What does this fold into?
Amino acid sequence: MSARTTLAVALEDIDGCFQGIVPSAICSLSADGKPNVTNLSLVHRIDADHVGLSRQFFNKTVRNMVANPRLQVLVVEPNTGHQFRLDLVHEDTLTEGPQFDRMEARLDVVASQSGMEGVFRLRGVDVCRVTSCEQVPGPDAAVASPTRALERTARLDACSRRIVQASTVDELMEAALRAFDELFDYDRSIYLAADAETGRLYTVASRGFEPSGVGAEVEFEVGVIGVAASRRRTVRVVNAKRERLYSTAMRSTLSGPGEDIRLPQLDDVMSELAVPIVAREKLLGVFNFQSATPGRFTAEDEDLASVVARQIGLMMVLLQMETVEVSSAKRPVRGSSGAVVKYYPADDSIFVDDEYLIKGVAGRLLWRLLGAYLDVHQTEFTNRQLRLDASLELPGYKDNLETRLILLRKRLVERCDALAIESTGRGKFRLVVNRELELQVVR
It folds into this structure.
C-alpha cells in the first residue's frame, strides 16, 4: 500500500503548511532520550511521502538526528491556523541538486535583502520520509479539499491556446500577462528581459501597475527577481513583511544620469513569485508576480507559472527565427517645432529636450535609426538589417533585438511625442518623426 493512502492527511492537501508563512517547530531526541525543540526556516514538500528540512544553524538538532533519525515536526496552515503533526525518519542530507537549489534560492532572497550573504545560508536539505501526518485536534478542524486537477489542466490549456496565437514577441508578452491575470488571477505582473552581458534585467512590459515601469532595471542576484535570474530557479516569497528592504534593494539597482525609472511594486506587497524564462539553455527573462496577500502564491502557482514560462520561452525562440527581409526609404512630413536629441556614448544614453529617455543597447539602436533618418531619409527598417549592422555591436543573443525594440517603442510612447516606432509586419517597423530633429553627441 502506498504512503499516499496510509497517511491520515495527504501532504498535497495541506500545501499551505509548506509555504514558510508560519515557522514550523521540530523536535529531535538525543541518544539518551532528551528532547530538543527549535524552529525551522523552511519545510518543503518533496513528494507524497517526503519533506525537506532546511539545515542552517541547528547544531544540536543535527547531532540528535545522527544519533536518532526519528523526528517530529509541527506545521501550521496559515489561513485557518490548523496544526498538523508529522512523524519523520531522516533518510539523507542534500548539499546539491534540484531540491537543494530550490530551497537555497528562497533563502538567498532573504539574505540578499538583509545583508546576510554568507551568514544566512543553506548548509543542507535534510530529506525525511513522512511516516504519519495527522491534524492536531482543535475547533473546526476540517482539512481543506484537494486541488482539482481538471480545473488546473483546463486553465493551462486555455493559456497555451492564447500564447500560440501570438505572431510577434510583443504580442506574446501582452498575451502572456493578460492570460496570467484572467486565468490565474495574477493581476500584478511584470516581464523583464535578461541581458547576460551586463548582468541585468530590464522591464519590457507590466500589467496592473501605473506607471508601467518600462525601462527599469534589476541586477542579477538582487532581490526576488535577481536571484531567480542568476539561479534560473523559480522563487517564491510568501510573507514579505520581514523583508521590507526589498524596495531599497530594487532602487539601488538603478543608476545613470537623469534616470527616474522605478521598478513597479505594490506598496503593501506581501507575496511574490519570480519565474525565469529559459530556452536552449539561455536565460531570456523573468516574470514577476506580486500580491498584497500573504501566502498568495502556492506550490501549485509555482508549477503552473513555470510550465507556462517554458512554453513562452520556446515561442520566443520560434518567433525570433521568423524575420521578414523587406525595407524601403521614405521622407515623412515633419512638424514645425523642433526637438534636441542628445546621445552620450559612455553608456549609450539618449535624452530628448534634456529629459532622459533610454540607455544601453536600446539607446544605441535609436541613435542608429535617427542617423539613417537624417542621412538618407530612411524610416522603414527590418530586424535583419539591424542584426547585420556591425556598428551596433549587438549582443550575441537574437532575442535581445526584438525585446530592445519593444522596450524602445514603449518608452517613446510614454516619454517622447517627437518620435514613435510602428510595426509594419513581422520583422519590420517604421520610425515616425513628428518634429524637426537636432542631433547632438555629448562626450
Residues 299-321 form the longest helix (23 residues). The chain is about 30% helix and 30% strand. The mean pLDDT is 81. The chain has three domains: 3-95+109-135, 149-321, 338-441.
